[in-house]
Structure formats: C-alpha cells, structure tokens
Design brief:
Number of domains: 1
Oligomer: single chain
Largest sheet: 7 strands, antiparallel
Shape: globular
CATH topology: outer membrane lipoprotein receptor (LolB), chain A
C-alpha cells in the first residue's frame, strides 16, 4: 500500500488483510480478489435491484482458513447476469452475525470493461458508512515498472 502524502509504503501481510483500510469500512480483503474455489455457492433466487434482475447467491467458505483470512463466515452477493458484475453484497462474521453491506452503483463500460465507479459500504456494527468514488479511470495504459519502486511510491506519481 502506498501513501504518498505521508511518504510511506506499507506491505500488507496475509494476516492483516481482514484489517480495515485507512479507517474506512472496507478491509484490504474487500478490495482484492477472492478465490472462487474457496467457497461453496447456493442460488437463493432472483431479485430486482434498481429495476434490473439479479442472481442472489450465498457464499460459504470451505475452510476455517478462508474465514480467518477474510474475516467472514458467510456472504451474500447479488450479481447482474447481463454484465456479470456484483451490485450488492452482505458480509457476516464467523458466528454468522451481519456485519456490513456493500452497494455498487454508477456502473459504466470503460475501454470495454464494466466498471463500478461508486462503492458504498455500510457498517452495521459501527453505524458508519464509507463511499468510494472513482474518476478518471483508464485501463491498459502501459505503466513502467519503475513507478512501483518504494522510492517512487513514497514520492507519488507526478
């Protein structure tokens, strides 16, 4: 993780991915990829979200290691089958107590890639909300590996 304004670079260990990202309601793990094979899935039906039919799925971790890594004992996700993007997700702890809900909006196709430009996480325990809004999104722009050096990450991209 790079924090150019603080001139800091921090490596995120696997054991810390369930920690919250910079005081937000998102964990480091929430912002990363999930391993499809780590879960069993159950189709719970279809639901309409913002006038669009979605598939409602339950995700159950296959092992205690997955629960430990993610911090979640159960998940629900609502997926748009027309573009295969999740528009809503609910997260539960290892005791299956509801923790938080993610909603995704302002979905746009950018350079041929369906992209969620707004992500809202509502934390039920903290009664707090974090909204990430992405702008100026560009894909496949050919980055130089040098921009990922610790020196450059501390300095920031000029």
């Amino acid at each position: 993780m790079s924090l150019p304004a603080l001139k800091k670079v921090r490596r995120i260990s696997v054991g810390k991915k369930a920690d919250y990202f910079m005081g937000t309601d998102f964990t480091y793990n929430d912002m990363g990829d999930r391993e499809v094979d780590d879960y069993t899935y159950k189709h719970l039906g279809t639901d309409m979200i913002d006038g669009i039919e979605t598939y409602h799925l339950e995700l159950l971790p296959k092992s205690k290691d997955v629960i430990k890594k993610t911090g979640y004992g159960r998940g629900e996700v609502w997926v748009r089958p027309d573009i295969w993007i999740a528009v809503k997700a609910r997260y539960y702890n290892n005791k299956l107590r509801f923790l938080k809900e993610l909603t995704v909006s302002d979905i746009e196709q950018i350079d041929g890639i369906w992209t969620a430009k707004t992500m809202t996480m509502v934390n039920a325990q903290k009664k707090h909300t974090t909204i990430f809004t992405l702008s100026n999104i560009k894909y496949n722009i050919g980055l130089d590996n040098e921009i990922f050096s610790q020196r450059r990450l501390k300095k920031g991209i000029q």
